């Protein structure tokens, strides 16, 4: 147990030089924070080896990029066809847009720039209405309790597959109106990552994603057609009806993008948050004790876990004209990778490598949800889900600890963009 916890002697590690790191490398994927610290100190705008890509590691530089949507575009597919998924490949030459309407491309929210992006974002607003999220809290609590009921008698679980993944998925099904009985199909699509990360996957990993995408698109198209024919009192029906009323005819590719995005964007990310919270609390027993003694700390625990292990470590933008960031010239056609995980470990946090559940002032500076016009649409859902799941688990899973014999599975998954252990086997007192 002692070797599994950090509380006794937090190892912040001595500052290493940039030249000591190979990048990309398994070492950086396993724990990127020493690499980020070296970047911030020596090369805050750093050219990715052998690529026309620049890593941006300081918070102020990242915010400057996020706010300048004319120079740093979300239409990242324009610079590299590997960004395109499934049917999107045909849209670049033959855009299936509705001429004369405000929406000129069928690409979804994440692949659009203002002003078109603002229209697409408004169209999804009802999902994240704070009153709607508050009114759904009992439903979120019920989902968390029902999942725990399935394993609590065993005194152990693999937290990602038995709790975090289905929790995130069932939540979005309930909130948006996807059929929860299809959850096995949706869980199979967890390989569908973000468009941003596709350029950095191996051909094999990209092929695995591409196998899932046509199935997801067909599924979403069927739901959209069904809601047109048989309207329901749900978010999906609202989005579909509003688009047809606004544009005069259905824009199916655009709707498929958005309905697919909402179904998948919050699943893996929120699941990663829930798994990270438990890994961090068990690794830091004195922090776990603080929140067990004072449940008022629950919101802060979620914020600190998001800061400490940002589930999405970075996203990217395409550079539309020659420019500079932090005094470093960046050519048109390059990509910038905004390292949110680095901004969240910036020295200005004070003791950034310590996980402290009573750290003050986290939400204002936390970059786990990005920033600027594309800041995570679902952040309030993720936070509500994280807080409720934590409260229910603290009440029901007594004396939580890592299950012996699973140390290797707690390493990060093999992905430089995502922070989450491969698996999280835990034990608790059976009831
Ligand atoms: C802990 C959980 C989550 C994390 C860490 C997270 C992270 C992020 C980040 C970093 C971005 C910004 C992308 C960029 O900079 O280009 C983003 C965007 C987005 N997120 Fe989340 N997310 C989470 C949960 C959710 C949930 C539950 C939803 C549910 C609907 C959601 C929906 C979206 C959407 C639709 C966007 C695109 C926003 C836009 O382009 O305007 N996310 N998310």
Low-confidence runs: 8-12
CATH homology superfamily? Cytochrome P450
Give the ligands present.
Answer: protoporphyrin IX containing FE
Helix content: 40-55%
Radius of gyration: 22 Å
| Biggest sheet details | 5 strands, mixed
Approximate shape: globular
User: Do you know the CATH topology?
Assistant: Cytochrome p450
> Which percent range describes the beta-strand content?
5-15%
| Total helical segments | 17
The CATH architecture category equals: Orthogonal Bundle
SSE pattern, N- to C-terminal: HHEEHEHHHHEHHHHHHHEEEEHHHEE
Provide an overview of this structure:
The chain is an alpha+beta fold. It has one domain (42-427): Cytochrome p450 (Orthogonal Bundle). 46% of the residues lie in helices and 8% in strands. It has helices at 26-30, 33-42, 59-67, 88-91, 116-123, 130-135, 137-149, 159-176, 183-188, 203-229, 235-247, 252-283, 285-293, 298-308, 340-343, 362-365, 379-396, and strands at residues 45-47, 53-56, 72-73, 156-158, 314-319, 323-325, 328-330, 335-339, 401-402, 425-427. Strand 6 and strand 7 (328-330) form a beta hairpin. Helix 7 runs antiparallel to helix 8, helix 7 packs across helix 17 and helix 14 crosses helix 17 (379-396). The chain is globular and about 60 Å long. The chain binds protoporphyrin IX containing FE (HEM). Protoporphyrin IX containing FE is lined by residues 109-110, 121, 261-262, 265-266, 269-270, 273, 311-312, 315, 368-370, 374, 376-378, 381-382.
What is this structure's SSE topology?
Layout (H helix, E strand, L loop, with lengths): L25 H5 L2 H10 L2 E3 L5 E4 L2 H9 L4 E2 L14 H4 L24 H8 L6 H6 L1 H13 L6 E3 H18 L6 H6 L14 H27 L5 H13 L4 H32 L1 H9 L4 H11 L5 E6 L3 E3 L2 E3 L4 E5 H4 L18 H4 L13 H18 L4 E2 L22 E3 L4
Parallel strand pairs: 2-8
Antiparallel strand pairs: 1-2, 3-5, 4-10, 5-8, 6-7, 9-10
Helix pairs in contact: 7-8, 7-17, 8-12, 10-11, 10-12, 12-14, 12-17, 14-17
The protein binds protoporphyrin IX containing FE.
């Amino acid at each position: 147990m002692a070797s599994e916890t950090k509380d006794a002697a937090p190892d912040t590690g001595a500052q290493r030089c940039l030249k000591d790191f190979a990048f990309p490398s398994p070492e950086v994927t396993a724990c990127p924070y020493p690499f980020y610290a070296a970047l911030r100190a020596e090369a805050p705008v750093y050219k990715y080896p052998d690529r026309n890509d620049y890593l941006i590691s300081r918070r102020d530089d990242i915010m400057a990029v996020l706010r300048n949507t004319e120079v740093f575009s979300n239409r990242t597919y324009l610079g590299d066809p590997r960004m395109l998924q499934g049917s999107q490949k045909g849209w670049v030459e033959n855009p299936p847009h509705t001429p004369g309407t405000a929406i000129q491309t069928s690409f979804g929210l994440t692949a659009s720039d203002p002003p078109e992006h603002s229209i697409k974002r408004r169209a999804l607003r009802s999902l994240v209405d704070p009153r709607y999220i508050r009114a759904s809290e009992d439903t979120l609590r019920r989902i968390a309790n029902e999942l725990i009921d399935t394993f609590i008698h065993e005194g152990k679980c693999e937290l990602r597959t038995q709790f975090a993944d289905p929790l995130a998925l069932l939540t979005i099904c309930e909130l948006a109106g996807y059929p929860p009985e299809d959850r096995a199909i949706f869980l199979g699509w967890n390989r569908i990552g973000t468009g941003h990360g596709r350029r950095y996957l191996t051909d094999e990993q990209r092929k695995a994603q591409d196998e899932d995408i046509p199935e997801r698109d067909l599924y979403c198209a069927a739901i959209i057609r069904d809601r047109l024919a048989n309207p329901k009192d749900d978010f999906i029906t609202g989005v579909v009806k509003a688009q047809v009323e606004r544009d005069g005819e259905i824009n199916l590719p655009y709707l498929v993008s958005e309905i697919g995005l909402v179904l998948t964007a919050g699943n893996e990310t929120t699941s990663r948050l829930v798994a990270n919270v438990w890994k961090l609390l068990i690794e830091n027993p004195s922090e776990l004790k603080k929140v067990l003694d004072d449940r008022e700390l629950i919101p802060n625990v979620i914020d600190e876990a998001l800061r400490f292990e940002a589930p999405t470590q970075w996203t990217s933008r395409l550079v539309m004209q020659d420019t500079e960031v932090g005094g470093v010239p960046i050519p048109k056609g390059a990509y910038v990778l905004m390292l949110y995980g680095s901004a969240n470990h910036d020295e200005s946090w004070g003791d950034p490598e310590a996980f402290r559940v009573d750290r003050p002032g986290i939400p204002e500076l936390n970059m786990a949800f990005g920033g600027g016009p594309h800041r995570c649409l679902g952040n309030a859902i993720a936070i509500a889900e994280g807080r409720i799941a934590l409260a229910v688990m603290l009440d029901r899973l007594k004396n939580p600890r890592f299950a012996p014999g699973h140390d290797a599975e707690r390493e990060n998954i093999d992905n430089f963009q995502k922070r989450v252990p491969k698996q999280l086997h835990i034990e608790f007192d059976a009831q």
